[in-house]
Amino acid sequence: MKTLDFYSTTEIDELAWPEENYDLTIDSSALLFFTDFKNNKPLVVESTIPVLTAKELMQKEHVRLKFVIDEKKHFIGVVSSDDIIERKIVQKVSEGLERAEIVVADLMTAKKNLKALDWQDISKATISDVITALKNNGERHCLVLDRENHEIRGIFSASDISRRLRLNIDIQEKTSFSKVFTATL
Predict the structure, then answer these.
(1) Could you report the per-residue pLDDT of 69-108, keeping only the tens digit for each?
(2) Measuring CA to CA, how many Å separate 129 from each of 46, 123, 140?
(3) What confidence tens digit (pLDDT) does each residue in 147-167 have?
(4) Record's superkingdom (predicted)?
(5) Is the CB of residue 104 less than 8 Å from the CB of residue 68?
(6) How many domains does the chain divide into?
(7) CA–CA separation, 101 and 124 (whole Å)
(8) Which DSSP symbol is given to 166?
(9) I need a surface site. Which of 36, 131, 136, 177 has the fewest CB within 10 A?
(10) What is the CATH number of the domain that holds 58?
């Protein structure tokens, strides 16, 4: 075992800071705002864990979206904080499930129902283009596909973009007939 020494900080005046570009604008490259899974591990949750456990984990981690994986670690969908609200849990209970039996797979959005931007397109886009796409589609998050390699390359988050630009980005969820219909049930 190596013995480590402690040193005085009296002569130290500076803090180390990440090399981040603070001159970001809406005309900056979209890639500067992109969470690239080649550099950052995606936040995942297993499809079989109880939804109440997932909800608690997401609240503790201060995240609004996780990628759902199956037992073989294959991507099968996403679960957002909007998917696991109390009303949706109560709806599953009314369908005959016990509250403790409801798992992430019961409330997640399956990958077949997800849309994503293309890596090649965003590599040439500004963050303004991405914000417009998010607003036009009523999405707070947007996956990015690398179609050439058949993988989810990363994600954009409206809240991350907003924080980095110091700009309020108001995303209005699109209303669809199916959402209105299921909300009234």
Answers:
(1) 999 999 999 999 999 999 999 999 999 999 999 999 999 9
(2) 33, 11, 14
(3) 999 999 999 999 999 999 988
(4) Bacteria
(5) yes
(6) 1
(7) 45
(8) T
(9) 177
(10) 3.10.580.10
